[in-house]
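Lab meeting prep.
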Amino acid sequence: MKKRKTAGELSIKARSDSTVYDSLEVGHALTVDILAQIRLCIESHHAKIDEPEFCVVMVLADDPLIKGVLRRKFYAWPYLPKPRPRQSCFLYRKLDDSVIRLWVLPDALSMATASEMVSVSPQWQTMKQWSDAFFAGKFFEFIRDQHHITMPSESEYLNTNREKLIKAGCQEVKTLFSEAFDFSKITTKQVVNA
């Protein structure tokens, strides 16, 4: 069996590469196997989510330990997830086994820039609409209207299905407020300088 290089080894190799790459080509390379990963997520959650349709979400995240490594994380929810930068959301319908792109949000700076601009080029028009709806606090209403869907958000879904979830064993937990740390209890003799 051939040994694969680790993410750290690939990161070091990428940092030492001085080649100038076309950002459009890099973007296309990043999307090559996304549909296959979405399908894997659908197969994993098809029997677990007892709804006729659900959302498959992809989030881009920087690796906290290895600089320059971008990770794609896929998960599924029976409701519309809270929108956030660097997130893509797809609607899967069990009835006809179809996948619909609901939204793709770029990083926070690109969202803010697109939203502040008066006009954008045609390929950024939808991204601007999503960003405007995000900053206006009307994101779910816009997405439902844009795609003609009625899927609830997380809070709407939990409120609607509260009794069913409690019967299934999800108990509502009453939490107490945490007490603030009292710094007056520390004396200088208790602090040790290593």
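Slide two material, second protein:
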Amino acid sequence: MEFIAAVAIGLNPYIGALILTALVAFTPRGPETAVLAATPQALLVALTALAGLAAPVDFVLGKFVRFAPRVRRVSQLVAPVAGGAAAAAVSQSELPLALVFAAGAAVSWSVAAMLSALAARGSRSRAWVGLGHVPVLMAAATAAASIIPLALANTVAGTILALCALGTLLLVSLAPALSGARAGGERLYSARGLGARRSENVGVHVNV
């Protein structure tokens, strides 16, 4: 559950935190952990309200090209803190909470960073007229809202969905580098072939 919460919050820290804290605060579906048991109900409600207020602001401002870069920078700062705290809160392992917090923060930051890079690349796409980041952020928000409830209902299904989201981000993030390397190899191969043909032509000219 720690990994699932970290991935969901990395996709969208406000919606991920909103869903998690709301389920823990108002339903009996939350995981039974020492951290959650020691957390006051009022604090959980306050965190739910805070995330609920921040989510629509992020959702709206993140769609405008003028505000999107700043909104993403803030999200990348919030994601590791919220992801680490969520991972530690739902952890049922025997690992030290500090280690769980650090691992959850790292996962959330990595997901948020890949998402920011993908959104920036989409916004530069001519096909989307500068709005390519919108479907990226909407897909991430939808996934964040779906992963945690599914995980609380069925941990295996939630883990699969979190892995699919992370795998998709990794694949799409690595695709430009792989394409660039392949294109570079093809250009190098073409350059070598051209050089060989030029050498042959020079040889023929000398012999003649």
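Talking points for slide two:
Confidence is low (pLDDT under 50) at residues 178-208.
Helices lie at 2-11, 13-26, 34-38, 41-61, 68-90, 97-123, 133-153, 155-207.
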